[in-house]
Amino acid sequence: MELFEVVRRRRSVRAYQHREVEQDKLHAILECLSAAPSAGNLQAYEIVVVREPEARQALGRAALGQAFVAQAPVVLVVFANPGRSAEHYGRRGSELYAVQDAAIAAAYAQLAATDLGLATCWVGAFRPEPVARLLRAPPGLVPVALVPLGYADEQPSRTDRRALVDLVHDEAF
């Protein structure tokens, strides 16, 4: 699949089939995620792959009751690792670059999943403390996104986007 087609086909899916994600596809997604650009190539993020139904249910509760999180057979929990970035970039690394690194990696995972015929949804609405506690995250790691992953059980339509004329500015506002 061509990149532009993948980008056009990606949707936020909130209904998943009761079908496991093949290990080779999951591995390919994780490989793609690890190839994402990052500040200083530090890859200041950590990924937890959650498959256990009870843990997925707990993630759904932490995600303000978004039940579809638990419905997906896999949830990728993307953590920023501010300490890793701070070692090289100080405060800006810990406060910004680590979060950017995690977000880019999650976006790469979403595109890879789309390319492989799988579906995802970026979930940013969640309580971080229960997520970190559930997954026994080491101190200092910050959950940035939950990414449910599986085979779509719905076909969401394309959402409207801002016109480029409203979004892109030449040299200044």
Structural description of this entry:
- By secondary structure, this protein is an alpha+beta fold.
- It has a single domain (13-153), classed as 3-Layer(aba) Sandwich (NADH Oxidase).
- Helix content is 45%, strand content 14%.
- The protein contains seven helices and four strands; from the N terminus they run ααβααβαβαβα.
- The chain has helices spanning 3-9, 23-34, 53-62, 68-71, 82-115, 128-134, 164-167, and strands at 45-50, 74-80, 119-120, 142-150.
- The chain has a four-stranded antiparallel beta sheet with strand order 1-2-4-3.
- The longest helix is centred in the middle third of the chain and has 34 residues, at 82-115.
- The protein is globular, with a radius of gyration of 17 Å.
- The model has no long low-confidence stretch (mean pLDDT 97).
